[in-house]
Design brief:
alpha/beta; Rossmann fold; 7-stranded mixed sheet; 6-stranded parallel sheet
Length: about 625
């Protein structure tokens, strides 16, 4: 089996897109690697962490994306090659620093890898991060395949050092998580000679002059892009239609053309350097085509840029007909697919049979499968926490609600979390919103608001709004759902962990002490204890001013790794009274743990021994005490 840190290897290896990005960085001789976990980007840092076992590189899961990017930048200032990886939401977090850094410039090669998530497969949005390349004035590279992902990442370090500025590499979910054969090269030199040149100062003053310098760097990148082999054309000399595309959309376009047998009529202009665009190559092919189709996902990034260029060149290229997002031919939301392009091309070329061509696989079992809702794992402490929150808010009776955040507990917007969460936005925003709710009393607002965030999110973005609440005496009630894990993205370490990504033992940061240090009342309770949790929440709802409750219990998956739970769960069929009970299957209808199943034939609840982890919390919800727990 191929090892990512292997120096010499002949032939091709099977790599995931994210692994190929990591390998490209290693072949470039990267020394400093940082990131914050978030699908679809997480595997890049995980792969580099494995390589650090054999190679002289440093790899870190940082407290948030901004700190990660700043740390990698420090390595660049000291002459080392650095990489920082994140998902599209993370670019929002680094944007303040990014737009300043691109004025100050860099030293050692610095690469920012951003993995977008069209269709929001594992995200709260489907933001197109490419806009940040224009906003920050930096080069943008978009690979189409794992092979290109490796090669572009490796080249990005060279490009960065040639213009002394950061370079952005953008992947998407389908590329990051796809696998294909990749030809690998030799590893870099990993020169370990970090030194900051005190004759150079990295800042943004005078701003206008630094802005002009950044523009010159981008012009230099443009000259390089015009000669890049990552941009190329395939097709007839004078096409009836020219498709301008990048990334995975290039592969979708090729497939559509092949299925419809249009390769001899349609030209394909594939762009790998999408900012600044290779203007000379685009100009050449705009002249040869009357009709131009833009194939890209989410925003009209390439479309708008090429149209602007075409406007400047109208005396040379003439008037063109454009098909894309602006014309309504290409979707403005979600992932693009060969089927969408096949349908569009069939319309353009009047190919009736093309409308019936489908490339997505059809599953004959789809109609027979029972729909599955989003839900917590068996034994998840968040189910217990939300159950206690729900009961407390009902007992309080003032129509309270939950301001949510990003994590596994986001599932609180659905029935598994009893539909308690009423808003979810960016990391830390749940508590930020609570700051606002907590100052609305003077305007007649009298509903209690509970805001929830996890331990990892608290470290990432929870501290600033908590400090704000303390300073402004906002009436916030923060419940920290501490499951001792960054569970949503793969159990990466965070400041509350006792071990870093590279296996170094460290002192975990105690959340309770942090809250106490700023003189905020804080209580820690086990959410598996329903009565105590409900009573504590109720009592805190009556208090004014900032207060914190930590509901602390290991993630069920973490607990299983530590030996599992101590109980065996069973059902007393004499006590489970079926329809005569009056509970209307409360445990399976309301509490909804996957380990509980309703046997309609026998008319009572059963334990799914495959799914049940033995946490025992379900024994507290049955009104007839029919669910029993016994110590193993």
């Amino acid at each position: 089996m191929f090892k990512i840190s292997c120096d010499s290897y002949e032939g091709e290896v099977l790599l995931q897109g994210n692994q190929a990005i990591a390998r490209g960085a290693l072949e470039a001789g990267v020394l400093f690697c940082t990131g914050y976990p978030g699908n679809p980007s997480s595997e890049i840092i995980e792969t580099l962490a494995k390589a650090s076992e054999d190679l002289p590189i440093y790899v870190e899961w940082s407290i948030n994306e901004k700190v990660a990017f700043e740390s990698a930048t420090a390595a660049s200032f000291a002459g080392c090659r650095g990489i920082s990886c994140m998902k599209q939401n993370g670019v929002n977090v680094i944007s303040d620093f990014l737009t300043n850094l691109t004025l100050s410039g860099t030293n050692g090669g610095l690469v920012l890898v951003v993995c977008d998530d069209p269709a929001g497969i594992s995200s709260t949005n489907e933001e197109d991060s490419r806009m940040f390349s224009k906003l920050a004035g930096i080069p943008l590279l978009e690979p189409s395949t794992p092979q290109e992902a490796l090669e572009m990442t490796k080249w990005a370090f060279e490009l960065s050092e040639s213009i002394l500025n950061v370079v952005m590499v953008r992947s998407v979910s389908r590329l990051s998580h796809s696998r294909s054969n990749v030809s690998v090269g030799k590893l870099g030199d990993f020169k370990n000679d970090a030194r900051f040149d005190t004759n150079i100062a990295y800042h943004t003053f005078p701003v206008i002059q630094k802005h002009q310098v950044r523009n010159e760097k981008l012009k230099k990148a443009l000259k390089i892009n015009n000669e890049s082999h990552f941009n190329f054309y395939k097709g007839p000399e004078i096409p009836e239609l020219l498709i301008v595309t990048s990334g995975c959309s290039y592969l979708y376009s090729m497939e559509a053309l092949k299925i419809l047998e249009l390769e001899s009529k349609v030209g394909l202009l594939k762009l790998g350097t999408t900012h600044p665009l290779p203007e000379e190559l685009i100009r050449k092919h705009l002249i040869s085509a009357e009709n131009i189709l833009f194939a890209e996902e989410i925003d009209a990034f390439i479309e708008d840029s090429v149209k602007a260029l075409a406007s400047d060149l109208i005396d040379v290229i003439g008037v063109k007909r454009f098909f894309g997002k602006a014309s309504g031919h290409i979707p403005t939301c979600g992932e693009l697919s060969p089927t969408v392009l096949i349908s569009l091309l069939a319309d353009i070329f009047n190919l009736e049979y093309g409308k019936e061509v489908k490339t997505e696989p059809e599953n004959a079992l789809d109609a027979a499968l029972i729909p599955r809702e989003f839900g917590f794992c068996p034994g998840c402490p968040h189910r217990a926490s939300y159950y206690a929150i729900q009961m407390a808010l009902k007992l309080d009776g003032r129509n309270g609600f939950v301001s949510g955040d990003i994590g596994c507990y986001t599932l609180g917007i659905w029935p598994s979390g009893f539909n308690q969460v009423k808003s979810v936005h960016a990391m830390g925003s749940g508590l930020g919103l609570a700051n606002g709710y907590g100052k609305l009393t003077q305007f007649g607002f009298n509903q209690p608001v509970i805001t929830v965030c996890g331990d990892s999110t608290f470290f990432h973005a929870g501290l600033p709004p908590l400090l704000n609440a303390k300073f402004n005496q906002s009436d916030i009630f923060l419940i920290i759902l501490d499951n001792s894990a960054t569970a949503m993205t793969g159990f990466q370490p965070h400041p509350g962990s006792d071990c870093t990504l590279m296996g170094v033992k460290t002192d975990p940061i105690n959340i309770e002490r942090i809250c106490q240090s700023i003189d905020i009342d804080v209580i820690t309770v086990d959410p598996y204890d329903f009565k105590l949790s409900i009573h504590t929440i109720l009592s805190l709802l009556e208090k004014s001013g900032p207060k914190v409750l930590i509901l602390k219990r290991n993630c069920a998956l973490v607990q299983n790794k530590k030996g599992g739970f101590e109980y065996k769960i069973s059902v007393d069929n004499d006590r489970c009274l079926s329809d005569s009970c009056g509970c209307n299957q409360y445990c399976t209808r309301i509490f909804r743990c996957p380990g509980l199943i309703w046997d309609s034939d026998e008319g009572n609840v059963k334990i799914d021994e495959v799914l049940c982890v033995g946490c025992g919390i379900c024994s507290q919800v049955c009104p007839q005490n029919a669910i029993k727990k016994s110590i193993l």
